[in-house]
Amino acid sequence: MTVYYDQHVHTRHSFDSEETIENYLQQTTKQLVTTEHLDFENPSEDFKDSIPNFNRYNDDLQRHEERFERQILRGIEVGYVHDHKNRIEDFIDDKPYDVILLSTHQNGKIDFMDPVVKEFELERLIGEYYEQMIRSVEEMPTANILTHFDYGMRRVDVSVEDYQKLAEHYLKHLFKEMIAKDFALELNAKSFVKYQNDTLYDYAIPLYVAMGGTRFTLGSDAHVAEDYELGFKEMSDVLKRNGVTELVTFKQQIATSVPII
Known about the structure:
Its EC number is 3.1.3.15. By secondary structure, the protein is of the alpha/beta class.
Protein backbone atom coordinates (compact mmCIF):
# COMPACT_ATOMS: atom_id res chain seq x y z
CA MET A 1 0.00 0.00 0.00
CA THR A 2 1.26 3.47 -0.91
CA VAL A 3 1.92 5.55 2.21
CA TYR A 4 1.42 9.30 2.35
CA TYR A 5 4.56 11.43 2.79
CA ASP A 6 5.27 15.07 3.58
CA GLN A 7 4.96 17.29 0.49
CA HIS A 8 6.09 20.64 1.92
CA VAL A 9 9.74 20.48 2.97
CA HIS A 10 12.61 22.97 2.71
CA THR A 11 16.38 22.55 2.70
CA ARG A 12 19.40 24.81 2.33
CA HIS A 13 18.34 25.30 -1.30
CA SER A 14 15.68 27.66 0.08
CA PHE A 15 16.66 31.14 1.25
CA ASP A 16 15.29 30.59 4.76
CA SER A 17 16.62 27.12 5.62
CA GLU A 18 20.02 25.65 6.41
CA GLU A 19 18.81 22.05 6.62
CA THR A 20 20.48 19.26 4.65
CA ILE A 21 18.89 16.60 2.49
CA GLU A 22 20.85 14.00 4.43
CA ASN A 23 19.12 14.92 7.69
CA TYR A 24 15.70 14.42 6.14
CA LEU A 25 16.73 11.06 4.71
CA GLN A 26 17.82 10.03 8.19
CA GLN A 27 14.53 11.32 9.60
CA THR A 28 12.24 9.21 7.41
CA THR A 29 12.27 6.04 5.33
CA LYS A 30 9.34 7.31 3.25
CA GLN A 31 9.51 8.92 -0.16
CA LEU A 32 11.25 12.30 0.16
CA VAL A 33 10.39 15.38 -1.85
CA THR A 34 11.76 18.85 -1.16
CA THR A 35 9.90 21.99 -2.22
CA GLU A 36 12.27 24.94 -2.40
CA HIS A 37 11.22 28.59 -2.40
CA LEU A 38 10.93 30.70 -5.54
CA ASP A 39 10.15 34.32 -4.66
CA PHE A 40 11.15 37.13 -6.99
CA GLU A 41 11.90 40.51 -5.36
CA ASN A 42 11.39 38.97 -1.94
CA PRO A 43 10.57 41.56 0.79
CA SER A 44 11.98 39.16 3.39
CA GLU A 45 15.36 39.37 1.64
CA ASP A 46 15.51 43.13 1.00
CA PHE A 47 13.74 42.58 -2.33
CA LYS A 48 16.45 40.33 -3.70
CA ASP A 49 15.34 37.38 -5.80
CA SER A 50 15.09 34.11 -3.87
CA ILE A 51 15.77 31.62 -6.64
CA PRO A 52 16.85 28.00 -6.11
CA ASN A 53 19.74 27.11 -8.39
CA PHE A 54 18.18 24.13 -10.13
CA ASN A 55 21.41 22.60 -11.41
CA ARG A 56 23.01 22.75 -7.98
CA TYR A 57 19.81 21.43 -6.40
CA ASN A 58 19.50 18.58 -8.87
CA ASP A 59 23.15 17.61 -8.46
CA ASP A 60 22.74 17.57 -4.69
CA LEU A 61 19.70 15.31 -4.93
CA GLN A 62 21.46 12.97 -7.35
CA ARG A 63 24.44 12.60 -4.98
CA HIS A 64 22.12 11.68 -2.14
CA GLU A 65 20.10 9.32 -4.32
CA GLU A 66 23.28 7.42 -5.17
CA ARG A 67 24.59 7.41 -1.62
CA PHE A 68 21.32 6.36 0.05
CA GLU A 69 20.01 4.31 -2.88
CA ARG A 70 16.69 6.11 -2.70
CA GLN A 71 14.76 8.23 -5.18
CA ILE A 72 14.15 11.86 -4.19
CA LEU A 73 11.43 13.87 -5.91
CA ARG A 74 11.96 17.44 -7.12
CA GLY A 75 9.63 20.17 -5.94
CA ILE A 76 9.22 23.92 -5.78
CA GLU A 77 7.11 26.40 -3.82
CA VAL A 78 6.17 29.32 -6.06
CA GLY A 79 5.47 32.58 -4.25
CA TYR A 80 3.14 34.12 -6.79
CA VAL A 81 2.89 37.82 -7.61
CA HIS A 82 1.13 38.92 -10.79
CA ASP A 83 3.96 41.24 -11.86
CA HIS A 84 6.34 38.26 -11.75
CA LYS A 85 4.12 35.99 -13.86
CA ASN A 86 6.39 35.80 -16.91
CA ARG A 87 9.53 35.28 -14.83
CA ILE A 88 7.85 32.48 -12.88
CA GLU A 89 6.68 30.75 -16.05
CA ASP A 90 10.12 31.07 -17.65
CA PHE A 91 11.78 29.58 -14.57
CA ILE A 92 9.61 26.51 -14.13
CA ASP A 93 8.86 25.82 -17.79
CA ASP A 94 11.82 23.56 -18.61
CA LYS A 95 12.41 21.93 -15.22
CA PRO A 96 11.15 18.42 -14.33
CA TYR A 97 9.40 19.21 -11.08
CA ASP A 98 7.34 16.42 -9.58
CA VAL A 99 5.22 18.79 -7.50
CA ILE A 100 4.59 22.53 -7.66
CA LEU A 101 3.24 24.32 -4.61
CA LEU A 102 1.47 27.65 -5.12
CA SER A 103 1.73 30.22 -2.33
CA THR A 104 0.83 33.81 -1.60
CA HIS A 105 3.60 35.25 0.53
CA GLN A 106 3.89 38.87 -0.58
CA ASN A 107 2.44 41.55 -2.84
CA GLY A 108 5.60 43.17 -4.18
CA LYS A 109 5.71 45.64 -1.29
CA ILE A 110 5.35 43.64 1.92
CA ASP A 111 5.39 40.05 3.02
CA PHE A 112 2.02 39.16 4.53
CA MET A 113 3.83 38.11 7.70
CA ASP A 114 5.57 41.45 8.14
CA PRO A 115 4.60 43.12 11.44
CA VAL A 116 3.04 45.99 9.49
CA VAL A 117 -0.01 43.84 8.68
CA LYS A 118 -1.05 44.17 12.32
CA GLU A 119 -1.78 47.83 11.56
CA PHE A 120 -4.16 46.99 8.70
CA GLU A 121 -7.89 46.93 9.20
CA LEU A 122 -8.90 43.28 9.09
CA GLU A 123 -11.25 43.84 6.15
CA ARG A 124 -8.43 45.42 4.14
CA LEU A 125 -5.96 42.65 4.98
CA ILE A 126 -8.38 39.87 4.08
CA GLY A 127 -9.42 41.60 0.86
CA GLU A 128 -5.89 42.28 -0.38
CA TYR A 129 -4.62 38.87 0.59
CA TYR A 130 -7.38 36.74 -0.90
CA GLU A 131 -7.80 38.81 -4.05
CA GLN A 132 -4.15 38.13 -4.78
CA MET A 133 -4.46 34.44 -3.94
CA ILE A 134 -7.49 34.06 -6.23
CA ARG A 135 -5.59 35.76 -9.03
CA SER A 136 -2.65 33.42 -8.53
CA VAL A 137 -4.86 30.36 -8.95
CA GLU A 138 -6.49 31.88 -12.02
CA GLU A 139 -3.19 32.81 -13.65
CA MET A 140 -0.73 30.11 -12.64
CA PRO A 141 -0.30 27.91 -15.73
CA THR A 142 0.56 24.80 -13.76
CA ALA A 143 0.48 24.01 -10.06
CA ASN A 144 -0.62 21.08 -7.95
CA ILE A 145 -1.15 22.25 -4.38
CA LEU A 146 -2.36 25.52 -2.86
CA THR A 147 -0.43 25.99 0.35
CA HIS A 148 -1.31 27.65 3.67
CA PHE A 149 -4.49 29.45 2.61
CA ASP A 150 -4.29 31.28 5.96
CA TYR A 151 -0.69 32.59 5.64
CA GLY A 152 -1.91 36.20 5.65
CA MET A 153 -3.80 35.60 8.90
CA ARG A 154 -0.83 34.35 10.89
CA ARG A 155 0.06 37.73 12.36
CA VAL A 156 -3.41 38.79 13.44
CA ASP A 157 -5.96 37.62 15.96
CA VAL A 158 -9.19 36.85 14.15
CA SER A 159 -12.21 34.97 15.41
CA VAL A 160 -13.83 32.37 13.22
CA GLU A 161 -16.99 34.48 13.21
CA ASP A 162 -15.19 37.59 11.91
CA TYR A 163 -13.17 35.53 9.47
CA GLN A 164 -16.28 33.90 8.05
CA LYS A 165 -18.05 37.24 7.72
CA LEU A 166 -15.16 38.90 5.89
CA ALA A 167 -13.51 36.02 4.04
CA GLU A 168 -16.18 33.51 3.05
CA HIS A 169 -17.08 35.06 -0.30
CA TYR A 170 -13.38 35.17 -1.21
CA LEU A 171 -12.91 31.56 -0.13
CA LYS A 172 -15.86 30.41 -2.20
CA HIS A 173 -14.35 32.08 -5.27
CA LEU A 174 -10.92 30.64 -4.43
CA PHE A 175 -12.19 27.10 -3.89
CA LYS A 176 -14.29 27.21 -7.06
CA GLU A 177 -11.18 28.09 -9.09
CA MET A 178 -9.07 25.46 -7.32
CA ILE A 179 -11.59 22.69 -7.88
CA ALA A 180 -11.92 23.60 -11.55
CA LYS A 181 -8.14 23.30 -11.99
CA ASP A 182 -7.77 20.14 -9.84
CA PHE A 183 -5.56 21.87 -7.27
CA ALA A 184 -5.22 20.18 -3.89
CA LEU A 185 -5.81 22.11 -0.67
CA GLU A 186 -2.96 21.83 1.82
CA LEU A 187 -3.33 21.57 5.56
CA ASN A 188 -0.20 23.40 6.67
CA ALA A 189 1.33 22.35 9.99
CA LYS A 190 3.17 25.59 10.60
CA SER A 191 -0.18 27.40 10.44
CA PHE A 192 -2.14 24.66 12.18
CA VAL A 193 0.27 23.95 15.03
CA LYS A 194 2.75 26.79 15.43
CA TYR A 195 0.42 29.70 14.65
CA GLN A 196 -2.61 27.94 16.15
CA ASN A 197 -4.87 28.63 13.18
CA ASP A 198 -6.52 25.22 13.51
CA THR A 199 -9.94 26.86 13.99
CA LEU A 200 -9.68 28.45 10.53
CA TYR A 201 -9.07 24.99 9.07
CA ASP A 202 -12.02 23.62 11.04
CA TYR A 203 -14.14 26.25 9.28
CA ALA A 204 -12.63 26.11 5.78
CA ILE A 205 -12.40 22.35 5.23
CA PRO A 206 -16.16 21.61 5.39
CA LEU A 207 -16.77 24.62 3.12
CA TYR A 208 -14.31 23.23 0.56
CA VAL A 209 -15.85 19.74 0.83
CA ALA A 210 -19.39 21.12 0.46
CA MET A 211 -18.32 22.84 -2.76
CA GLY A 212 -17.04 19.55 -4.17
CA GLY A 213 -13.40 19.72 -3.14
CA THR A 214 -11.85 16.28 -2.77
CA ARG A 215 -8.09 16.78 -3.07
CA PHE A 216 -6.14 17.36 0.14
CA THR A 217 -2.50 17.24 1.17
CA LEU A 218 -0.68 17.54 4.47
CA GLY A 219 2.47 19.65 4.59
CA SER A 220 4.73 20.28 7.55
CA ASP A 221 6.35 23.34 5.95
CA ALA A 222 9.48 22.01 7.63
CA HIS A 223 12.64 24.09 7.52
CA VAL A 224 14.45 21.72 9.90
CA ALA A 225 14.40 17.94 9.72
CA GLU A 226 12.83 17.43 13.14
CA ASP A 227 9.67 19.19 11.89
CA TYR A 228 9.13 16.56 9.18
CA GLU A 229 5.46 15.45 9.30
CA LEU A 230 4.72 17.93 12.08
CA GLY A 231 1.08 17.82 13.13
CA PHE A 232 0.12 15.06 10.72
CA LYS A 233 -2.02 13.14 13.21
CA GLU A 234 -3.95 16.20 14.33
CA MET A 235 -4.53 17.39 10.76
CA SER A 236 -5.54 13.91 9.60
CA ASP A 237 -8.08 13.74 12.43
CA VAL A 238 -9.69 16.98 11.22
CA LEU A 239 -10.05 15.55 7.73
CA LYS A 240 -11.52 12.30 9.03
CA ARG A 241 -14.10 14.25 11.05
CA ASN A 242 -15.18 15.83 7.78
CA GLY A 243 -15.56 12.50 6.01
CA VAL A 244 -12.30 12.72 4.07
CA THR A 245 -10.60 9.35 3.65
CA GLU A 246 -7.88 10.06 1.09
CA LEU A 247 -4.96 12.38 0.43
CA VAL A 248 -3.13 12.93 -2.85
CA THR A 249 0.56 12.72 -3.71
CA PHE A 250 2.21 14.00 -6.86
CA LYS A 251 4.94 12.52 -9.02
CA GLN A 252 5.71 14.07 -12.39
CA GLN A 253 2.74 16.27 -11.44
CA ILE A 254 0.37 13.30 -11.69
CA ALA A 255 -1.92 12.81 -8.69
CA THR A 256 -2.25 9.51 -6.84
CA SER A 257 -4.83 8.93 -4.12
CA VAL A 258 -3.49 7.59 -0.83
CA PRO A 259 -5.66 6.48 2.13
CA ILE A 260 -5.46 8.44 5.35
CA ILE A 261 -4.12 6.09 7.99
